[in-house]
Design a protein that fits this description.
- The chain has 155 residues and is α/β, with parallel strands linked by helices.
- It has helices at 8-15, 84-88, 96-104, 128-144; strands at 38-43, 47-49, 62-66, 72-74, 110-111, 114-118, 149-153.
- Strands 1, 3, 5, 6 and 7 form a five-stranded mixed β-sheet that branches. A two-stranded antiparallel ribbon has the order 2-4.
Length: 155
């Protein structure tokens, strides 16, 4: 039996008009200057540490990585993106080495001790669980670590 593969264009056409949640307002807090800021990575690459299960469709939870974690794998369930960059260099989706370099050069104040990964492809476009539960939980974790700035790497 032949398998059909969706092209990027076909996938975009299918989801282009899917309604997404719109916030009534966007809160803003003035961070300190980057030279004084503690920075964390928040990615939607669906990263997991080795040995942890793959993400399941609709999973709006998140994974937390220690700053020293290097055994990360792309466990994203969606096959609709090019994974070759990640295969060559983890920093494509999780630029921890670049953050460490910036901290060493005093461009940023420090690198957070914990970083977060969500799975980007979500079937529930209202993201109720992420908006009301896991998103605020991730934000609290970063706040408790003294994070001033989150570097978002959407995948």
């Amino acid at each position: 039996m032949a398998t059909t593969h969706n092209t990027d264009q076909e996938v975009r056409a299918r989801v282009n008009d899917v309604p997404v949640y719109e916030f009534a307002s966007t809160p803003f807090t003035q961070p300190p200057a980057l030279a004084n800021a503690r920075v964390a990575i928040v990615t939607t690459a669906g990263l997991r540490t080795e040995g942890n299960a793959h993400w399941q469709p609709g999973d709006e939870s998140f994974s937390v990585f220690d700053v020293t974690a290097r055994n990360l794998r792309l466990a994203h369930f969606s096959p609709n993106f090019d994974r070759s960059g990640f295969a060559l260099d983890l920093n494509v989706v999780y630029p921890i080495d670049r953050l460490n370099e910036l901290a060493a050069r005093k461009v940023i104040g420090s690198v957070a001790s914990q970083h977060i990964s969500f799975m980007g492809a979500q079937l529930d476009h209202n993201l109720a669980t992420m908006r009301l539960d896991t998103g605020p939980a991730a934000a609290r974790l970063l706040r408790d670590d003294g994070v001033d700035v989150a570097l978002l790497t959407p995948v």
